[in-house]
Amino acid sequence: MFPSDDGVGLCKSDAYMTCSPSQFASRLRWRFSGLDQIGALDAADITGATFSVYGTHSYNCTERPVTLYMTPDFDASSGWDSTFGWSGLSSQSVSHKASCGNQRWIGFDATAGASAVASGNGGVLALGLGVDESSNVNWKRYRYDASLSITFNRAPNGPANVRLSAPATPCVMGGGRPYVNSLTPTLAADVSDPDGGNVSGVLQLYRTADAAPIWPWVVSAAQASGSTWRATVPGGMLVDGTGYSWGIHAQDGAGRAGPSTWCEFVVDVSPPNVPGVSPGAGSPYQEGVRSGGAGVPGSFTFTNGGSADVDHYQYGLNDSAMPETAKLGSTVTVTPKKAGPQVLYVTSVDRAGNVSHRRDFAFSVDVPPTSAMWLFDEGAASTTAVNTVSDGPSLTVSSASLRVPGMMAELDPGSAVAGDGALRFASLADHAESSAPVVSTDRSYSVGAFVKLDDLSGVQAAVSQNGVSAPGFELGYRSGAGSGCPTANGCWAFTAYGADSASPTKTVVASSRTVAAGEWVYLMADYDAQGHTVGLFVCDPGGEPDPVVTAPFTASWYATSGLAVGRGEASGVAANGLHGTVDDVAVLTGVADQATVRLYCTGSARP
Questions:
Q1: Domain boundary at 100, 128, 152, which?
Q2: Per residue, what are the HEC states of 77-120?
Q3: pLDDT of 394-416, one tens digit each?
């Protein structure tokens, strides 16, 4: 850097006393470093550059040319007597005579020099000033503190997150192009500018097959960098079954465009046909037929109804929202939770998301079949309780003295069948029992009975089925420490035992209903082998069942001894004798729902 100011041009002693030697030529050079940011740009990004310098003196007041050059890089050791490699950038005709009032800043166009730095990925720009050195009339002086100002405008970024936003579809080009179920889709992309300037989105939409323009060169209003650009295709432009290509790029305020991204889609607004629904192989459920049972699974196969573009199916059992999804060619399994009419709702969905009309497959779930039922109506002298299910096992009654009038004979004699009876138990020796197991306790089952207690002491089993050391279950009443009841006053309960051992774990489901001695109730309990739960219903005779109480139970096993009425078992011996009366004991092969329990509560359920 030279101090203060210095001269450029021819200096001759006959004109200037200060020329030493008597004649010489002088040029001025400036070195601008730290331009790495400029070097990182493309040459096309440079929009302008100005070299500004202050002129302090000229030979006279006549304006004569001075030229700005781009020069090779230099340092303190570089020579000053060569113009090799100097490339002219721009010229000005000026004078700087103080007496003429012309001392001032002047600017030279240095755009080509800045572009050269960008092209070469450089970081330094060396500039020089020169004049016609044939005559000292061109002599000028300039201050050292020149400046370089460079302006640039980078192209906008390529669009990001290019997509169809309505309906939501990613950008795909070529194979696997998406299908769109709209004639007026919304196209979207995130547009931005590296310099932070406002940008517009520029859209081109063509028909893919013949490249025919549909909606070309649609320019949006300028918006902030980083915004989401959206354009909704107007109605009447697109045709069902036709493929389209669309491109989007960002354009800044100076009209500079960024790179484009292209996408394709096919319009498909035609819904598929109604799907076919058929029961799977071995499924118990047929359309319009009552079969199966609550908790009994059934399989169904869906077909496309003749539409080749079906992507998947939506379905729901008794749920018209159809929250479940099935792939093509798959068989689905549904498990009804209750008896009675059921509807399997099914629709086809094509690759564009079009949904067919709904197929409603109606069937009916049968109540769980009664595998055994004892009404205890045989007569006062009988020690056998006959199973009303054909060929079902009978119970041996420990004494005919246990026979008393039945629940209906007591509560509504006018409606009771002739000879309506029940069994009343007073001691552990009183019981009725089968010679072999009746309930497969490791499979789904339900067991129920009308029960009336004489007192509210201890644990009393109305119905149980025993193993060698422990019962598989006990249905009845519990009280006392560790009973599992909601309160200390005792409760109706169903107890499932976790192993055939002297000290098995117990799972108790207990009713919160108040228990009173001398009052009839109906109890029905179940084990759901699919859901791994045990449950308990309680209702008044002829009334509506209380909501079921359930608990998880995963330790089922097969209790291989007989079914007992009036007592249970503990450590391999009779225990938990009932103090009260039992009527209409029933065993069901399956899980009873509330509607089934209601039938038994009214006393109208029969095999």
A1: 152
A2: CCCCCCCCCCEEEEEEEECCCHHHCCCEEEEEECHHHHHHHHHC
A3: 999 999 999 999 999 999 998 88
